[in-house]
Amino acid sequence: MANAFFSDLLATISERGRTLLRRGDSADTRRDADGLIDLCDALLSGRGEASGIAIAREVLDIYRELDAAGRRAFFDGLVRDFGPDRERLSKAIEKWRAAPSDEDASSLHFASEPRRQELIRRLNRAPGGTGDLVNMRADLLGMMNGHSDLAALDRDVSHLLSSWFNRGFLVLRRIDWSTPANILEKIIRYEAVHEISDWDDLRRRIDPVDRRCYAFFHPAMVDEPLIFVEVALTETIPGAIAPLLAVDRQYLPIERARTAVFYSISNTQRGLGGISFGSFLIKQVVEELRRETPKLDTFVTLSPVPGFMPWLKQDKDLPLSDEDREVLKRLDDPKWFESPETTAQLRAVIEPLAAHYFLKARTPKGKLIDSVARFHLGNGARLERINWLGDLSPKGVRESAGVMVNYLYRLDDIEKNHEAYANDGEVVASSAVKKLLKGEGRRLLDMRLS
């Protein structure tokens, strides 16, 4: 209610300011990148509150009308014309060098701030400005590939967004069948892991007694989930996604639930890329579930491995024999998993490779290759289990040869696991995963198949 009142008040102020501006020369503003830069200069000139909000809204509206070339020209203008005040910065540097003090350090800090940061702050005052700036950064990220000249602008925008989307401002809300339809529609659209086919599919994921969905929202974007997680309450740790999503599955009575399975986490706003909410979301959802269902004692993911197949195809240093490479060629058949003989042969090769992928493989910069692994291990989870044929959907077969993994969040070990990964790059994994490495894993598998 308070948010709605404040938004309406801002909109009224903005509209009145725009009415005043139309009586002046604003109506003749060029609606291209150069005209937009002129408006940004006007916004920074220090006019009154109403006119400032109106100009900010005008800037954002004109920006939305620009094509890709116009938006790129606008970003170039922000880089070129809205950096630090060099004369002021030079004076602050000279003063600091002459007689360093805390006051001079503060002056140097503020003098070094680019003008575009204050511009972005003022744009954020416009009604709906926060969401527009998030969308603007999405455009910026899309143009940055190979264009390092835009990096400084992105640092400024992401710096401010990181402050505005601080965990302290986020609101956790449960998504269920009583949630407004416009938000439910976005859950369907934004689901990035396991596609939601229709409204009935959505209802099966959020309405039954053994299913949960939670999302983070921001007060300035009340109808936009920023990130959401889908949870299945089960008796044991699952190894495949299909039974969790089955149309005709039997619902589990809540008193029998012992395991909470995080089987889908979706970020929804590309413009907030690099601003992490996921670790906060999982930890807060764990607390919510523990309060609601005290008998839950296991918190685990059922995670995809989207980078596994690309790694198999591109990495020339895989620990494989010539015979193994011949076996892997069977993955070219889109229905390979329908043959028991083929699946057995592939399993003997792929499970040890998957263990190597998670435990040994690194990027040239020394990071784990898999982004999902980096996320969960960085949050303090343990790589618990590699699941053969865990996802036989077309997407799962295409991206990971059907492999899925469980990351276990053992509350007493989260801090220790996080420190091991963050400080030493150590992948904390169960003994079952470690035994799958080439050699030992192959011997165990041969014993199972014999």
Automatic annotation (TrEMBL):
Q: Which GO terms describe its molecular function?
A: malonyl-CoA decarboxylase activity
Q: Which GO biological-process labels does this protein carry?
A: fatty acid biosynthetic process
Q: Which residues form the Malonyl-CoA decarboxylase C-terminal domain?
A: 168-409
InterPro entries in the cross-refs: Malonyl_CoA_deC, Malonyl_CoA_deC_C, Malonyl_CoA_deC_C_sf, MCD_N, MCD_N_sf
Membrane-spanning residues where? none
Question: Looking at the record's lineage, which domain of life comes first?
Answer: Bacteria
Malonyl-CoA decarboxylase N-terminal domain span: 82-165
Mind telling me which Pfam families this protein's record contains? MCD, MCD_N
Which PANTHER family does this UniProt record tie to the protein? MALONYL-COA DECARBOXYLASE, MITOCHONDRIAL (PTHR28641:SF1), PTHR28641
Protein name, per record: Malonyl-CoA decarboxylase
What organism is recorded for this protein? Bradyrhizobium shewense
Output the lineage of the source organism.
Answer: Bacteria, Pseudomonadati, Pseudomonadota, Alphaproteobacteria, Hyphomicrobiales
